[in-house]
Amino acid sequence: MCTIITGPAYTFGLGSHALTATATDNAGNQGSATTTFNVKVSSVSLCNLVTQFSTSSDVAAGLCDKLPAASQAAARGQSKTKSNILRAFDKQVSVQTGKALTSEQAAVLNNLATAV
């Protein structure tokens, strides 16, 4: 029997991951398999996580409103604008830490926002 590995994608961190499992049956036959997956973030997926984490729908809406603008600025090559928008996102997350967000949730959101 293989160990079951489950969890929200954000707990694995951004990037590529590989999981390998090996099993041996009662006759001593052994087999193994590997699977890979990639954790990415977008403005939509980060907004979904914000909505899941926040205890206030108003706070979630305020944070989510910033994310498409950051993605659009990046698509236009406006890295300074994107950076300013994400800085505002990070600041609002910090303000809401201990209120609508836990410190652990805030750390996850700020980390993922860097990759939007």
Task: Describe, in plain words, how this protein is organized in 3D.
This is HYR domain-containing protein. Keywords: Repeat. With about 120 residues, the chain is an alpha+beta fold. About 50% of the residues lie in helices and about 15% in strands. The chain contains 4 helices and 2 strands; from the N terminus they run ββαααα. Strands 1-2 form a two-stranded antiparallel ribbon. The model has no long low-confidence stretch (mean pLDDT about 95).
Name its key features.
116 residues, alpha+beta, two-stranded antiparallel sheet, 17% strand, elongated, HYR_dom, repeat
Topology (elements, then pairings):
Blueprint (H helix, E strand, L loop, with lengths): L14 E10 L5 E10 L3 H11 L3 H19 L3 H18 L6 H11 L3
Radius of gyration: 19 Å
User: Structural class given helices, strands, pairing?
Assistant: alpha+beta
- The helical percent reads 40-55%
The overall strand count is 2
InterPro entries: HYR_dom
Protein name: HYR domain-containing protein
Keywords: Repeat
Quick structural overview:
The chain has 116 residues and is of the alpha+beta class. The protein is built from 4 helices and 2 strands.
